[in-house]
Amino acid sequence: MALSELVSMTDSVFVERESALQSDLVARLTLGDRTAIAELYDAHHAAVRAFAKRLVGEVAAAEDLVHEVFVALPQAVRGYRGEASLRTFLISVAVNHARHHVRAAARRRYAMERYEREPPRGSTDPEQVTGRRELALALERCLDALPLDQRVAFVLCEVEERTSSEVAQIVGAPEGTVRTRLFHAKKKLRALLEREGVR
Fold first, then answer.
1. Looking at the domain that runs over 12-107, which CATH code has it been given?
2. Long-range contacts made by residues 165-169, C-beta under 8 angstroms, separation at least 24?
3. Is 0.85 topped by the overall pTM?
4. What CATH code would you report for 112-199?
């Protein structure tokens, strides 16, 4: 037996095993098995939290959203068809639950706080630090002004660097719609940033 055939067989067995484990986990989740929820939480909490923080802003709101996602999981998983990874499915649940968080009272956005806090390499010039902070705040305000669908497309595609195909699975929209939303998000952001005096 050739090495390539052996590798192919090994890969096939691994994929089947992973698929069986995922099916078992989904079945347990559907029944509300707390250990299954805990397993999924341990594996994917950080990714869901990072997405939620980029989308809704402040840490407390992001944590509330993550909590809602995992509380809703036993009910939501009934809609899981196995076409995407469980992590991608969790992000789509977060998108659905984010709507009321985004519509709530205006929140400070911290999606760009890392950018704001990082001093420019090799420079501690107060003017540069202040300039970066002002740019980060302008970006936060402009992201807040985008409609939710466009904001989701921008965060998933540009900040998290996901493909439009994966984003389409997450938001449950055609890939062309995702690209259109991203196009409009970028166009509006450019216009809003120009109004803020950022070129």
1. 1.10.1740.10
2. 166/84, 166/88, 169/83, 169/84, 169/88, 169/92
3. no
4. 1.10.10.10
